Amino acid sequence: MQETGRRLNLPFKTKFYQYLLVVLIIGLTTLICSPLSNPQSYHIVSFILLFVVALLAVFMGIGPVLLASTISAISWNYFFIPPFHTFHIEKTEDRLMFISFFIIALLNGILTNRIRRQERLVRDREIQTNALFQLTEELSKASGIEKVLEVARNDFKKHFNADSWYILQDGNNRLGFSPRPTDEKDLPVIERNIVEHVFANSERAGRHTGLSGEAGLTYHPLTGTRLNPGVVAFRIDEAAYKNRIAFRDTWFTQISNALEREFLGELAMKARLLDESDRLYNTLFNLISHEFRIPIATIMGASDTLLISQTTDKNREELYGEIFKASARLNHLIENLLNMSRLESGKISLRPDWCDVNDLVNKVTQNLKLELEQFSLTTVIPEDMPLVKIDFGLMEHVLYNLLLNSCQYSSGSGEIRLEASYENGNFILVVSDSGPGLPPEVLPNVFDKFFRVDGTKSGGLGLGLSIVRGLVEAHKGSVKVENGLNGGALFAVSIPSDMPDMEESKLAE
Amino acid sequence: MKENRNILIIDDEVQIRRLLEISLSAYEFTTFFAENGKQGLVAAATHHPELILLDLGLPDMDGLELLVRLREWYTKPIIILSVRNSEEDIVSALDRGANDYLTKPFRSGELIARIRAAIRSGEERKDTPLLEFGDLSIDMISHVVRKGGEIVRLTITEFSLLALLAKNSGRVLTHQFILKEVWGYGYLEQTQYLRVFIAQLRKKIEDKPANPVLLITESGIGYRFGS
After folding, report:
1. Per-residue pLDDT reduced to its tens digit, A388-400
2. Is the whole model's pTM more than 0.80, yes or no?
3. Topology of A353-496 in CATH?
4. CA A142, A148, A153 angle in degrees (round to 5)?
5. CATH 3.30.450.40 fits A150-246+255-268, yes or no
6. Do B219 and A354 touch (CB under 8 A)?
7. Using CB atoms and an 8 Å cut-off, which of residues 77-116 of chain B contact chain A?
8. Does A355 touch chain B (CB under 8 A)?
9. What order do you get walking across the sheet with A376-380 strand by strand?
């Protein structure tokens, strides 16, 4: 029993030391009692020796206790019962006394030892129950397979003083190749064929078992009710744990259940994601086929007309213009799709740099010159606007999409207002229009992917604003929408930005 | 424009080559093509083109590598054609000696303007003491800048910045290059100074600082002096 190893000190550890110690202690007691070696007080010595034997029974195994009883009886007889230094006992009452001494010493020793064993068993059981309870609690807190494995590994080490490795299945009842954890330096050789056998047949194999006993490790199946999570491999000194087999098996069941729970959870999550991506795929497919077809039809129709028919110069020019507009629209669609997929896959890497907001506004308004033509654009940038630290290219997309959105959804000849400012460590960009605004009930959904207000004219995938939100959030900022004072939609972007650190002297050079 | 200016186009897309051939021939340029890097090297050596249009995505070798090998001996302008969202590639290409870049899809008008600017700046003697751009004149010897005849007061740094950009008019200079040339190696990351000085310069030499035509920002890449 391992727990006793902790209670007893090192010299008690082996049987040999226990016997030696018993002999020494009895010898010492005899020596100490030697002044009492006279016909008047030798009875007292018997009590002292009985007491010592009882005391030894608390700490020693049954063998040493028997030895202690025997030597103490003999030494009492030899050294203390008159005549001294002989085994001969003269008086009948002394003879009776000697026999009863021997029997009492023996019974005393055995009974004390038994009580102690009982107590030890109860204690061990309590410790094991507690351990399992703790494990259950820790496992219930662990979420994710990695976390469960971490708990399992640490707990295994705690109870069995050894490492353990887990070979798990991949969710499709196929065993993964590498044992976890894989980053161990002293990773043992995992016997692949035994692992497969253990997994397939749910039976123990390997070291200390009837199956492939020559193997370096013991392999124990982790079995669940709906799926078998995998196999655990370990190397423990079986002899030292032989009375804890029940505990070990319960322990494995706990781990199996926790792993099974995680596996089932993951499978359910995958199914949900698949459903969701199916839905998105359909939406995207419908939108793309619709949105792409219009400009493509325009290009094909216009170029076909130009190729075969004789049209007036004025018509030709108009057709060329249509082709150009349609291709620009296609280009914008592709750009948005690309940005969306980059955002979704997390491939957007921010490269923030100091940036002049005037530059940003100028660049975007130049790109949108054609679209903005029919609107009156008011730009307000404070004279003392500081530089802001943003990714210029990505913020161009943000402003571009916001302005284009205003152009598309505010009625013609309307006003579009663009305001930039710096407040409390935030770069603020507000784009508002004088259009009809947004129905209040759709405000929370405006930034959703593929969201479009019902009844609006065709002109996009409903990606622009969700890209705006994605890019702004990539900057750790936020964007909100409301209906402005004049009734039009108002979009406000806020991005945290430091002020640039500059030496005054450098600026004047 | 003089006739028979040779332009070498190194691009593996047939449609793009065809389009470029038509667009450029309308402006009296003679075009010839290479589909890959190896052909490109040979064609450049045999035809001595006035300008090279180089696509960075080639089938047989890295466009940047081809650029470096061309620049070992070829001194005339090279304009990079690239797909969008590859700012880092563009910056590396400019740092390796490309004069300018265009992202696909581009407008033919824009392409012609860039080609002309690049060829012109290649021909002009860069060491002339007086550079003139419209009503702006920059005297490189006396460090006097005039706009519409009036002297514009510039600080020393402002003048170095303006002179550097003006000497390389029509060419895109990367942030790093400008910072290194004007402020020195210790300032390669200090783009905030560059932004502030560009803004100051615009106020002094642009007609409409909010809509600059001389000091043009190339998003995420650098600046170009428009001419």
Report:
1. 999 998 899 899 9
2. no
3. Heat Shock Protein 90 (3.30.565)
4. 130
5. yes
6. no
7. 84-85, 87, 105
8. yes
9. A376-380, A415-423, A426-433, A489-496, A478-483
Chain B: nearest CA to A323, how far in angstroms?
Answer: 13
Q: What is the pLDDT of residues B201-221, one digit of tens each?
A: 999 999 988 889 999 998 888
Q: Which residues contact B205 (CB under 8 A, 6 or more apart)?
A: B136, B145, B147, B152, B162, B214, B215
Q: Which two tokens stand for residue A85?
A: 């230094």
| ipTM given for this complex | 0.83
Long-range contacts of A448-453 (CB under 8 A, 24+ apart): A449/A280, A449/A340, A450/A280, A450/A283, A450/A284, A450/A287, A453/A409
Residue whose C-alpha is closest to residue A287's, from A455, A454, A450, A453: A450
Quick check: A358 and B210 CB within 8 A? yes
Amino acid code (one letter) for A89 = I
H helix or E strand, kind and range, residue A97: helix A92-141
- Residue of A344, A137, A169, A195 lying closest to A267 (CA atoms): A169
Average per-residue pLDDT in chain A? 83
- pLDDT above 70 (res A9): no
Q: Which tokens belong to B78?
A: 């090279």
The Cα–Cα gap between A31 and A44 comes to: 14
Q: Which of B95, B214, B98 is nearest to B147 (CA)?
A: B214
Domain locations along chain A: 2-136, 150-246+255-268, 270-344, 353-496
Sign of CA dihedral B92, B94, B98, B104: positive
Domain A270-344 has CATH 1.10.287.130: yes
Token pair of B212 as six digits: 């600059």
Cis peptide before A439 (omega within 30 of 0): no
A353:B191 CB<8 A:
yes
Q: What pLDDT, on a 0 to 100 scale, did the predictor assign at position B2?
A: 47
Interhelix angle A92-141/A245-308, nearest 10 degrees = 10
- The region of weakest confidence among A469-478, A482-491, B83-92, B169-178 is B83-92
Domain boundaries B5-123, CATH class: alpha beta
Residue extents of the structural domains in chain B = 5-123, 130-225
CATH 1.10.10.10 fits B130-225, yes or no: yes
Q: Write out the two tokens for A120.
A: 């030890």
Give every CB contact of residue A193 below 8 A, 6+ residues apart in sequence.
none
